[in-house]
Specification:
This protein is of the alpha+beta class and 291 residues long. It has eight helices and eleven strands. The strands form three sheets. The protein has a seven-stranded antiparallel sheet. A two-stranded antiparallel sheet has the order 8-9. Strands 10-11 form a two-stranded antiparallel ribbon. The radius of gyration is 30 Å and the shape is extended.
């Protein structure tokens, strides 16, 4: 598996630069990250915060982002190394403040016609329409961060839900996007691919990926089998009026109140809908004491 690391626009010879790739994390729940270490160096290290970073794996661009933090170690106790943490385009998108055309930090959509600020062209919009207006209005800021591929119009067209309440977008751009989808279209996700394209795929129809041990570059870190919290339990209520006791069928301290035939005939329905204690009906009237 060939990996090409580029920092600040230049491909890094990782052997000569003594760079070790530690971890690449791709996530739909938050920013993706890339971590690498520069070995046997002097502080503060060869690379600076804010420098752009890309990682290409087997010819496919997998990460685009910037260095956000440096972590020196070994100072005074041995060879010095500097760890670098990079965050991807999702993090960069969230550094963009929402700005309206009038210079304020608030975008409002779908106001009722009775509102003094009602604008017909900004009302009755679907979530896809709202996001399109948001992205188009911040196209220059998005491009400046490396998000140059825009958005997928087909995916936006699938966001057909029309909010039944006014939509107010403020603060950081990507936080607003995630919050909007979580409230009105929560079966769709939000992520930005390394080539700078904004995506909103359906989480119910994501492609199936099969990984094969010893064939694909994957390692099975841990496998476990557990029977925690799967035992029968008895809940005692009553506080100080309950006295605990250990009782066992084996030593005869407790005996069943049912027969072997009754036990053999028992089914889970007897527990879920016990005879004489469970009933379905229609509520016709109700008071504080009577149903």
């Amino acid at each position: 598996m060939a990996s090409v690391l580029a920092i600040n626009g230049s491909v890094v010879n990782r052997g000569a630069a003594r760079i070790v790739l530690n971890r690449l994390t791709l996530s739909m729940d938050g920013p993706g990250s890339l971590e690498f270490t520069e070995l046997v160096t002097t502080t503060p290290g060869s690379y600076r915060q804010g420098w752009p970073v890309t990682l290409t794996v087997d010819g496919t661009l997998r990460f685009t982002g910037v260095i956000v933090s440096l972590h020196p170690s070994g100072i005074g106790s041995g060879p010095i190394s500097v760890g670098y943490r990079c965050l991807d385009l999702t993090w960069l998108a969230n550094q963009i403040p929402i700005t309206a055309s009038d210079g304020t930090g608030t975008l409002t959509f779908n106001l009722p016609s009775t509102d003094d600020d009602y604008v017909p062209s900004l009302s009755g919009l679907s979530i896809g329409d709202i996001l399109k207006r948001l992205y188009d209005g911040h196209a220059a800021q998005l491009a400046a961060t490396g998000i140059t591929g825009g958005y997928d119009p087909v995916e936006l067209a699938a966001l057909t839900a029309v909010p039944t309440a006014p939509v107010v977008l403020q603060g950081r751009l990507w936080n607003a996007v995630v919050g909007l989808l979580a409230q009105w279209c929560n079966k769709y996700g939000s992520w930005i691919s390394a080539d700078g394209v904004i995506h909103h795929p359906s989480l119910l129809s994501l492609p199936t990926t099969t990984l094969t041990l010893d064939g694909d570059p994957v390692v099975l870190d841990d496998i476990a089998e557990a029977f925690l919290e799967c035992y029968t339990r008895v809940v005692l209520r009553g506080g100080p009026w309950v006295e605990a006791a250990y009782l066992s069928l084996a030593d005869g301290l407790v005996a069943p109140r049912w027969t072997a035939a009754e036990q053999a005939a028992w089914t889970i329905s007897d527990f879920l809908t016990p005879k004489g204690a469970y009933e379905l009906g229609t509520v016709t009237s109700m008071s504080s004491t009577t149903l």
